[in-house]
Amino acid sequence: MIKKASQALYSIGDLSKEFDITTRSIRFYEDQGLLAPTRKGQTRIYNQRDRVRLKLILRGKRLGFSLAETGRLFELYDADKSSAKQLSSMMALIAQKKNELKQQLDDINAVLIELDDLESNCQNILTKLTH
């Protein structure tokens, strides 16, 4: 980490190590317009804003948000610093993700029930065949 005029600056390697991701991933997020480092020659220099955005990108991925959804939230925040619109959009996305996850959980539970039934049938047939 580089300190310059009381602002923390980071290299791509710093962020890669801190968040345990590849530099290729960070460059990909940059290509997607989610990060905007300054450049000094070929060297990328990330500021605190980029670091926070990277943290939010990774958190969003973990929670099931697409990069496009994360990008929309960033755009909303950049356009409306009061965050009211961003928070409303975030709440809508959260509700959507919760519904998707609940549906996935229902689907998983249904498959588990089917597998339990199939396992039981197989066990019954195996028991009959061996006795």
Which helices and strands, and how do they pair?
Blueprint: E1 2-4, E2 7-10, H1 12-19, H2 23-31, E3 38-40, E4 43-47, H3 48-62, H4 67-79, H5 84-130
Antiparallel strand pairs: 1-2, 2-4, 3-4
Helix pairs in contact: 4-5
Give a quick precis of the structure.
The protein is of the alpha+beta class and 131 residues long.
Description of the molecule:
This protein is α+β, with helices and mostly antiparallel strands. It has five helices and four strands, in the order E-E-H-H-E-E-H-H-H. It has a four-stranded antiparallel sheet. A hairpin with a 2-residue loop joins strand 1 and strand 2. The longest helix has 47 residues. It is elongated and about 80 Å long.
| Poorly predicted parts | none
Q: How does the major sheet shape up?
A: 4 strands, antiparallel
- Strand order in the largest sheet: 1-2-4-3
- Provide the helix percentage: over 70%
Distance between the termini: 71 Å
Shape: elongated
- Strand count: 4
Rg from alpha-carbon coordinates: 23 Å
What fraction of the residues are assigned to beta strands by DSSP?
5-15%
Structural class: alpha+beta
Number of helices: 5
- Written as H for each helix and E for each strand, in order along the chain, the element string is EEHHEEHHH
Average pLDDT, all residues: 89
Comma- or semicolon-separated keywords:
131 residues, 5 helices, four-stranded antiparallel beta sheet, alpha+beta
